[in-house]
Write a structure and sequence with these properties.
The chain has 104 residues and is α+β, with helices and mostly antiparallel strands. It has helices at residues 17-20, 61-82, and strands spanning 27-32, 37-43, 52-59. It has a domain at 23-82. A three-stranded antiparallel sheet has the order 1-2-3.
Length: 104
Amino acid sequence: MQNDKPNETQINIQLSEEVAEGTYSNLAIITHSNSEFIVDFVKIMPGTPKANVKSRIILTPQHAKRLQKALAENISKFEAVHGIIKETEGFEGIPMNLGPAAQA
């Protein structure tokens, strides 16, 4: 008898203690080219004129699209349990469209 289930591949994903601690970010700057999306995660401290990029993630357009869908789904689930997330102006004077929309 044939198995109707396709072969399922399992991926063993490991998480080091250092990475598991995470990195706090309160601003994400997104830029893109024709082949990749770059997301820079920044931590801005009030009263400090300088902020450093804490982490940079580079994604293919396909992975960026999957991330967008996964975030939308998780936000919907969160709001169903905890209520609507209120959008506030976190940093006055900082435009939310930082970075060029490169088309290289």
